[in-house]
Design brief:
Blueprint (H helix, E strand, L loop, with lengths): L7 H17 L12 H5 L3 H12 L7 H6 L7 E3 L5 H11 L6 E5 L9 E6 L5 H7 L2 H4 L2 H14 L3 H6 L9 E6 L1 H12 L11 H27 L4 E6 H4 L6 H11 L3 H4 L13 H9 L3 H10 L10 E7 L7 H9 L6 H4 L2 H16 L5 E6 L3 E2 L2 E2 L17 H8 L10 H9 L4 H48 L6 E7 L12 H10 L1 H5 L8 H14 L1 E5 L2 E7 L5 H42 L24 H8 L4 H15 L4 H26 L29
Parallel strand pairs: 3-4, 3-6, 4-5, 6-7
Antiparallel strand pairs: 1-2, 2-7, 8-9, 10-12, 11-12
Helix pairs in contact: 1-28, 10-11, 13-19, 15-19, 21-29, 22-26, 28-29
Amino acid sequence: MNCNLKTPVDRYIAVNDAIRAVFNVGQNDPSILGTSRVASLFNAAQYARAAYNLRSSGEVVSDPKLVESYFSDVPKPFFLAELDASQLSHLIKLYGPDIMRANIISANLLETDYWPLVTGGACILETWATRLLDKPILKNNPGLRREVLHYLLQNAPYYSHVTGTMIAGSNAEYSLMYDETFPWFLAVYDLGKQPGLTHKEWNVGMAEEMCKEFYDEIYAATQRRSTLVSGNGLQILRLPFADLQLEKKGHLKSWFLEYSATLPPEFKKFLPTNYHGDSFLGAHVRYTYVGPHILKIVKERISTLGVDLNKFNVHVRTKQDDHLTEGKRINRILLQGMQEENTGFLSKYSNVCDVAIYFWHMQSWSKNQNGFIGFTDLSFKGNIVHDTINLATGQNGDPKNEEDLWDLLNSPLRLHKNNVDQHFEYLNRYIQPVYIYEEIVSQIIGLEKRIQKLKIKIETIALHAQERAIIKNILEQFVFEKVTGFKKTITIHSSSIGEAFKNKKVAEELRKQLHNLGKRYGKRNEGLNVSCAFEFFKRLSHELTVEVDGEIIRISLPMEEKYSDVLKILASELNNEVIEYEHQANAEKLTLAQLQKEDEQTLKHVHDISIYEIDLSITKPTLFPLKDNMVFGHAVQLSFDSSISDFIIEAQKIEDSNFPLEQKRRLLVQAMRKILPIIRTYIQVMMGIPNHAIPPHINKKTLEPISLQGSPISA
């Protein structure tokens, strides 16, 4: 039991700090999107707020870091970790223990005198799936595309659907899940169409039924998750988009007129004066995010079910934090204004409407009864699961062939309702004793490869330095000796060139190095007399000769008194490069020494294992870094349980310790063996696996941290 966490605020801060530290490991600048997607989101709120403040004051935002970090749905965001203890305590009481994974909150939700209607929703096709269906391998093969689409729908919900739907288990009596059967069934129908199919084989009704079945299942899973989080009988209401009647009642049209009026003048020409609802079905989704009367409409529709929501005065949409932004293109438009490159993009009706909504929202977010909470969703290897096509590689590229496509789709890494057992088999490999040794051996092989590459790199740097030094010395010898004509010959002994040109034809190599002086330095050095240097390099290309006679090497250059300064400057440049190469070599030697020390320590623990006799597979799970560890990824999503949040804190301390790598692994495996059964049970309940009762330990201290006596992390 972690005795230092006396209050929920202490726990939130400790858990958040641990998660942030894990995802920032090895990131030079994690605030920039693209280094690690999860890390960037943990460092984006202050930049997004700075971007909003600049734009609100009339400035153009040019800093790429601010542009990339901006959240179009949450113009003025705060990290929960930024808040003072009283604010954070209030939010934890209001939203319940699932707020442990919350990261971002809109500024208007920092008030204390409101009652939130917590809402959420799920896309039937996650980002990774829509990207995959749009790849050439599927787009150019309608039959295969339809087969993959059916496969995706049959396996849904995926676990990332469940974790990504909403912050569950608030203390506000009711929460709300939007059912997006409409308009998703239209998109599913369009994706599944294939020329030659009969109406019976594929029709809109079939697509709608598939979507309805999905939302039945995701709603049930969300209810189960909420019960696990809160245990207080919280009722999650379900409201289909179609029942909001946003189009029928004229809400979307009136909103169109409202946001059209706030669109900056330079964009007006792209927006038609007439409303076209069928051309922008995404408006139904957008309205449930920021629509001006969404809370009032929800109350009216739910009242027909006999439920009174009048006490709720703020509609809070909870979403995965990476879904709070529309990306770089929209951000650049919002923060920098009209650019010629955006003409084609804005010519599409739905795109210009999206832009108009975000301009409107930038001005009106504080005036409406809407707010946002962004939470950290399931991740693996620093990537967000719902956003990544290939979880093994972290890539979003096109599968090479159909075999790769089905390998990707059948991977146990992506948990769904039909592969729970296979996913658990994968998780179990994290704690199997034989795996631990294999992982250590894999680490040794990796270290040895890095060491060998580094040695080669250091040797290459040293050779470059020797080559530059030899040419520098030759030039200095020409300058030193008296000029007696228009061409000069010097002699050097082969011993003076050492190992630099070993296994090379010396005469050819020296000619090459001397000929390249003009290309390498002729244009970049401001100290050279241009006309004199040009003349020298021109003569050099025609008159240079290098002859080898036994151990003697004769070199002839065009040489006049006026060329002396040119040669001195070239020699100085070469000397600077020699010094730079020496600095590089010294830095790499330090790195090499560190790797060799780590290699030596690791070898001590496995000296009796033949690294050539063990089957090492790239699919073996990785213990460290923790951001690559699937067990840790699951733990973050279950951090509402204090035993699991204790594990998160403990695991990060182990990773950050100065223990030898093998000892870190042993401690982490020991901790995972205790926590993995709890994680498995939670997943089984959420995914609807029969005969698994709700764990009795919810929010209780059941995990005793691993003993770390004598370690800096035991303090």
